[in-house]
Design goal:
The complex is a heterodimer of chains A (288) and B (427). Chain A has 288 residues and is mainly α. Chain A has eleven helices and two strands, in the order H-H-H-H-E-E-H-H-H-H-H-H-H. Chain A has one domain. A two-stranded antiparallel ribbon of chain A has the order 1-2. In chain A, strand 1 and strand 2 form a beta hairpin. In chain B, the strands form three sheets. A seven-stranded mixed sheet of chain B has the order 7-6-8-9-10-13-14, with helices on both faces. Classes of the chains: A mainly alpha (288), B alpha/beta (427).
Chain lengths: 288, 427
């Protein structure tokens, strides 16, 4: 095994890890702010992919061009979902909450299959295709752009949370709902915002993926398990934690596959997941 | 305090049972319609294939019930249902197994006990066919399997199980026959082989046989790579393959992973001389549509190809009907499923009954000839295990966005292009 193959694999791991991170950030944010596990999160990703597919297929608009639009659409969809469904189960028992988001997952998949058929779609002839040689490494252009896009979106979310008043209010609600309410922060507004941003992040990941990953109603299932591992690894509710954990999971998955053999790649990730649960249940960067 | 509820529900149950019995026997006596249970993955990861198979079955049922006057050679083309059953119509009762063996068994049971179907057709995924046909065997209802190719399915000593498609063992033998004949014809030597497969029953079984046959036939097997069917990336797999540097990859993948692997080959610049694929994902309608030029030159085993129509006009005529409805051509999967229902209908018609035992007997006596089929088979005739002994596979190569038959050489419509050009030398 040459150094070139190792480096190449490492690079691929980082790039796919950035996508995992972006999916997980939305998930961790919803959980952090309101303690609800969103099982329908993979479906936000799916909707983001379909949105860019249809904008491309019907109006020949490149996914990268329509990224802001798709993100806005998913943001609105997340808010709407909160207002219509999630708001009613905030104080419900955890089991009801789980069933609600699980039900949403099945519903959204079903609707996607009904409206858009179960066919695999893909976006051919996007602005980004092919690959480039970079310092001896062969990197797929779509993957590279997706990775950079993921970094940009994460940075934006991070900036929003740490540098703006609204972001601070969101963080305050996450830290202590009652105290934040006493300070005059409308927690329902914050919850809706968290769902909006959460869905938008997954949507952005979907758009970035759409340039190189097949698009089909069940596509969320491929990513959601890894996203849960990432959220847990990074610490529930921690955006920076999810970012680094996403990269870590991507790298471990590909390196584990390369060094131990591909059949074990998922096993390696899940063993790590178990180890974190056992020895550091708050996650690598989570607060205890 | 009185408890009316239990009594009422007992009454309801009785009523339902009586109604069910009456309805069931009535339907059987006059046979105004023959109910056939159909189990396919209508949702879940293979839903796209499931939808295609459903379309094929509906076309077959429609031809049997309402006719297709222009196609004289096709059985039942006159329409008007099954002649020996007083023109009984075929009624398909669809069930969705989601690619889940457990769901397949449950749905088979429901179709048999509640829908009272005369026979079952299904179920595409080999592992689901295994469980669903087990239920049919237990209840003594004929199970016709048109397209699951796992060899073990007909090695179970079942009495009620019939399979029209050739199975994986035969297909894998075809691969090596092809390699030998190609080497003789073009006077060269195929180099080392690597196998690459998804890790469910089908992928593993096919690969096991490939790995066994390769050394026996005198080929070096340099690497075997197995990957989880729901992968988000195949980087480490392709790197491992690339490091082994095989000249031929024998691959077994379903659609999602087939697409992902092709994209990863290109991304990482992995260019073996040839990819020899086991249909499934590589012959799905979406494969060429999605990959476009990047799908070129792959050779895949197939059971059917549109260009066979140059030798059998029936193929084009039936395909035209399908295309008119769905704006898509038949595939190896849908053509086999279509044929499966035709074979079953032929048996039910000859049985002149919807009794399971009569249908089973008629199925066992099936003797259809090549000119009545849309398949490149020599016919349909089942052996004692329920396997059609007259089926055979073909190999097709994707050139100019089409599947071209390249093997057997006497059916070929095009010369094999070998090796496939490297990624960076393609236009």
């Amino acid at each position: 095994m040459t150094a070139e193959i190792l480096l190449q694999t490492l690079a691929s791991g980082v790039l796919i890890g950035l996508i995992y991170a972006l999916v997980a950030i939305g998930l961790t944010m919803i959980f952090g702010v309101m303690d609800i596990v969103n099982f329908a999160h993979g479906e936000f990703l799916m909707l983001g992919m379909y949105a860019s597919f249809w904008l491309f297929a019907l109006f020949a608009l490149d996914p990268l061009l329509t990224l802001p639009l798709t993100v806005l659409m998913l943001f609105a969809f997340g808010m709407l979902l909160y207002k219509l469904v999630i708001r009613r189960i905030i104080d419900a028992p955890m089991l009801s909450q789980i069933f609600t988001t699980f039900g949403l997952m099945i519903l959204l998949r079903g609707v996607a299959q009904f409206l858009w058929k179960p066919d695999f779609r893909s976006i051919e002839g996007s602005w980004v295709s092919g690959s480039i040689k970079l310092a001896g490494l062969q990197l797929g252009r779509p993957q590279l752009v997706a990775g950079l896009g993921a970094i940009a979106v994460t940075a934006l979310v991070h900036f929003f949370l740490t540098r703006t008043r609204l972001g601070a209010a969101l963080e305050a609600t996450a830290a202590d709902k009652e105290a934040a309410q006493l300070m005059g922060i409308d927690s329902h507004r914050m919850f809706a915002l968290a769902w909006g941003i959460g869905a938008a992040c997954a949507g952005a990941a979907g758009v970035l993926l759409a340039t190189f990953f097949p698009i089909f109603p069940e596509v969320g299932a491929n990513f959601i398990l890894l996203a849960f591992v990432v959220v847990n690894l990074g610490g529930f509710g921690s955006v920076t934690g999810a970012f680094w954990a996403g990269i870590l999971v991507g790298v471990i998955e590909v390196m584990g596959g390369l060094l131990l053999g591909p059949p074990y790649k998922t096993a390696v990730v899940l063993v790590l997941f178990l180890a974190v649960l056992m020895f550091r249940p708050q996650g690598l960067m989570g607060k205890a | 305090m009185p408890h009316p509820q239990p009594r009422r529900s007992v009454l309801q149950a009785l009523g339902a049972t009586l109604f069910g019995l009456g309805f069931g026997s009535g339907a059987r006596a006059q046979a105004a319609e023959v109910k056939i249970g159909v189990i396919y993955p209508l949702t879940g990861p293979a839903a796209s294939t499931g939808a295609e198979l459903k379309n094929a079955l509906e076309l077959a049922a429609d031809i049997i019930n309402n006719g297709a006057k222009s196609i004289a050679d096709l059985p039942f083309a006159a329409g008007g249902g099954l002649p020996k059953l007083k023109g009984a119509k075929i009624k398909l009762v669809f069930a969705d197994h989601q690619g889940n063996p457990q769901a397949g068994a449950t749905e088979a049971e429901r179709l048999i006990t509640q829908e009272k179907v005369a026979a079952l057709v299904g179920a595409y995924n080999s592992n689901v066919t295994a469980t669903a046909s087990q239920v049919a065997e237990r209840y003594g209802v004929p199970f016709l399997n048109p397209e699951s190719s796992s060899a073990s399915l007909t090695a179970r000593g079942f009495k009620w199980f019939f399979r029209t498609t050739p199975h994986d063992d035969l297909f894998v033998h075809n691969f090596f026959d092809f390699l030998k004949e190609l080497e003789a014809k073009k006077n060269f030597k195929v180099g080392a082989i690597a196998t690459f497969n998804e890790n469910t029953l089908w992928g593993n079984e096919t690969t096991k046989l490939q790995a066994k046959l390769a050394p026996e036939k005198g080929y070096a097997l340099v690497k075997q790579v197995t990957y989880p069917a729901k992968s988000t990336q195949l980087t480490s797999e392709v790197q491992t393959l690339k490091a082994a540097n095989p000249s031929l990859v024998m691959q077994s993948s379903y659609l999602g992973d087939a697409l992902l692997s092709m994209k990863t080959y290109k991304e990482l610049g992995f260019s073996p001389d040839m990819i020899l694929a086991n249909n499934a994902g590589f012959t799905d309608t979406e494969f060429i549509r999605t990959l476009g030029k990047d799908a070129e030159y792959v050779i895949t085993r197939e059971v059917w190809a549109l260009d066979l129509a140059t030798r059998n006009p029936l193929i084009k005529q039936v395909n035209d009907l399908f295309f008119a409805r769905h704006k898509a051509n038949f595939t190896g999967n849908s053509s086999r499923t279509f044929t499966g229902l035709m074979v079953l209908a032929d048996a039910i018609n000859r049985a002149a009954s919807t009794e399971p035992e009569a249908i089973r007997k008629a199925l066992a006596e099936t003797d259809l000839r090549a000119e009545n089929l849309i398949m490149p088979w020599k016919g349909v005739k089942f052996d004692a295990t329920g396997q059609n002994t007259l089926g055979r596979g073909i190999l097709v190569q994707i050139v100019d966005g089409k599947y071209n038959t390249v093997y057997p050489f006497n059916l070929a419509t095009r010369e094999v292009t070998w090796p496939m050009p490297k990624w960076d030398q393609r236009k």
